[in-house]
Amino acid sequence: MQSLQKRTWAEVSLANIAHNYNAIRERLPEGCRFLAVVKTNAYGHGAKRVAELCENLGADYLAATGIDDAVQMRSWGIKAPILIFGYTQPEYIDVLIRKRITQTVDCLETAREYSSIASKMGHKLRVHLKVDTGMGRLGFICHGDRDCRQEILETLNMPGLDIEGIFTHLAVSDEQDDDYTKMQLDAFNALVKNLEEESGFRFKIKHCANSGAVINYRQTASLDMVRPGLMLYGLYPGRCKGDIELRPAMELKTRVACVKELSPGDCVSYGCTFVADKKAKTAVLPIGYGDGLHRALSGKIDVLVNGKRAHQIGRICMDFCMIDVTDIPCSVGDVVTVFGRDGNEFIPVEELAEKAGTISYEITCALTERVPRVHIGSPDRV
Ligand SMILES: *Cc1c(COP(=O)(O)O)cnc(C)c1O
Question: Which CATH number does the domain housing residue 293 bear?
Fold first, then answer.
């Protein structure tokens, strides 16, 4: 593990992810399934360890971005059902069937293609139908004056599809008591009721709750499954924290590479945007936008050095950035926390997100491959 902590690394607490998983699980009514969203390398937290952990904790389903990460999960020995949120080219349907991977179907045309290929193979492809109730992304459109009932009724009769579930995605569930969300939920519930009445078919798994809905619209857990992502990693999707206590799982750390004195007039980094106005001391950190620390954050963030906040100065480079340590004792090799805790000080991911004009999701997802994920606490010990 030491060898992974020589330059810049992300420490990921599996114990905290387990805590978050259990805190969410506790709120779910008996029988409600838990789909753990581990797409996008588990929001940057390392999909292998997170998927293994969630499976051990009893997650009923895992979600992948596309066929590549779904197949990768199978290669790690993940046995739980896996749902692909994205589109898969019909020529890979045989892989999905062989690997027992569930595919999202978002329109009639795709449903026809998938069904015809699966039937020719003498198999059925397991699918969940996705309905667009206002997100304006993937899905059979059931919104405004568009009604996809007939299209879905036709899909229900396709011989090559094993239709296990139906779901929708909420656009503003991070806000409490929001009319748009209520409209989406009503549209989804009405559609499902209608389809079931008209066809006699029963969807085994109906679902719509992302993290925002798990926190702000608890009634969504009365469906058959919830699909939280961000919450698992201990982060809140919006301002409202509800009554659930989550623990951030990731801390981003690096080590002082060099400490130097500045004289008045000395400049720091590209463009000389920072010029010392007095004698000062800087530390060079081996982290930059090549690691996922956005250049747009240049001059805006603080980091923690030996329990104290130090301001980042000058432009963030590809592999380095500089901080002002004039009043902070520090030496080469000291651990620096970009976000996370050091002693009594804590820098939340949200602080960086706000300064970058984005959301916490993007900060953890942005960490690049060369940043080792160091997982603390093993699945069998948490
Ligand atoms: C990413 C995603 C989720 C999880 O969203 P969070 O806000 O991270 O909880 C759920 N459902 C779908 C369809 C998604 O794409």
Answer: 2.40.37.10
